[in-house]
Amino acid sequence: MKIAVFGDVHGNRFALEAVLKDMEAHKVDEWANLGDGLFGGADPAGAWALQQEIKAKYGAKEIRGNTDERLGEKLTPETEKRAMLEWLHSVLPAGAGEYVANLPTTATLAGGKVLVAHGSPSSAWEYLLRDGKSWASDALVLERLDDVGEARVVIVGHSHLEHLRQIGPLTVVNCGAVSRQKDGCPHARWVLLEGEGDVWNVTFKRVAYDVEAAAAWAEANAYAGEKEARQLRTGKGD
Q1: CATH number assigned to the domain comprising residue 56
Q2: Minimal CA–CA distance to 104: which of 52, 33, 192?
Q3: How many domains does one find in the chain?
Q4: How far apart are the C-alpha atoms of 113 and 91, rounded to whole Å?
Q5: In 3D, which of 200, 196, 209 has the Cα closest to residue 235?
C-alpha cells in the first residue's frame, strides 16, 4: 500500500500543483491532507479549489489545522490576525472558512495502522515533536500522543520541519510543509508512506516549483504580500 500525506499548504496553489503532480506519479492508494490549507497568500482560492479536487478525486482524508480554526472564528476588534482573516474571507468562496474549521483533528488510514493529525491528536495547536526550539523527548511525545490504538505510524505537520522518530514499535513523522518553509530551502514537501500491517517505510519528498510566480502573485494580490513573498523565496520564516 502507498499513502500520500501532505499539509500546511498555506494558500499556495503554485506549490500544491507541483506536489499533486508528484503524488499522482506515485499512484498512491490513500491520501491525507493535514490541514492549514488556506492561511497564506499565493492564491488561497486556487489552493482551496485544488484541495477540494483532491478530496473529490482521491477521497483524501482532511484534518483541521490551527489556522483552519482561525478561519472559523467570529471576527471582533480583538481577533488576532484580523486583517489577514478579513482578506482571506474576501477572496475565498463563501463557507470555505467554516468548512475547514469543522474538520476533525485526526483520521486513520490503512485500516487503523496509520494515524494522522495536524499538531497532536488532541490539539491542532500543540507541537507533537517540538519542545520550544528543540526536539521533544520520547517521553513527552508519548505523553502528547496518549492512546493511538492499533496505529504503528503517526504523521503530523504544524512545525513545518521534517522529522522521523522511532519510539519502540511506533514510527512518528512530521511530513514537513507544502509551503512557508523554515529551513532555508523553498521546495515543497510531502511524505510517501509504503507498507502494510506493522511494517512501513517513510520517504520524505521535496518538489521544486515556480517559487517566483508564487511570490509575484503574493506581492501583487495578498495581504502582507511582501512578507509572504520573502518567505517563499528564501524558505525562511518564524
Answers
A1: 3.60.21.10
A2: 33
A3: 1
A4: 38
A5: 209
pTM for this predicted structure = 0.97
CA distance 178 to 162: 11
Question: How many CB atoms neighbour CB 94 within 10 A?
Answer: 7
32, 59 contact by CB (below 8 A): no
Contact partners, residue 116, CB within 8 Å, separation at least 6: 5, 32, 34, 61, 63, 106, 107, 108, 109, 154, 155, 156
Chain centroid to Cα 141, Å, comes to 19
Cα-trace Rg, the chain: 17
Is the Cβ–Cβ distance between 24 and 146 less than 8 Å?
no
Q: What's the domain range around 186?
A: 2-234
Q: Residue with C-alpha cell 490541514?
A: 35
- Of the candidates 6, 106, 86, 78, the one whose C-alpha atom is nearest the C-alpha of residue 39 is 86
Rounded CA separation 214/129 (Å): 29
Q: Which residue has the cell 494558500?
A: 11
The tens-digit pLDDT sequence of the chain (238 residues) is 999 999 999 999 999 999 999 999 999 999 999 999 999 999 999 999 999 999 999 999 999 999 999 999 999 999 999 999 999 999 999 999 999 999 999 999 999 999 999 999 999 999 999 999 999 999 999 999 999 999 999 999 999 999 999 999 999 999 999 999 999 999 999 999 999 999 999 999 999 999 999 999 999 999 999 999 999 999 998 7
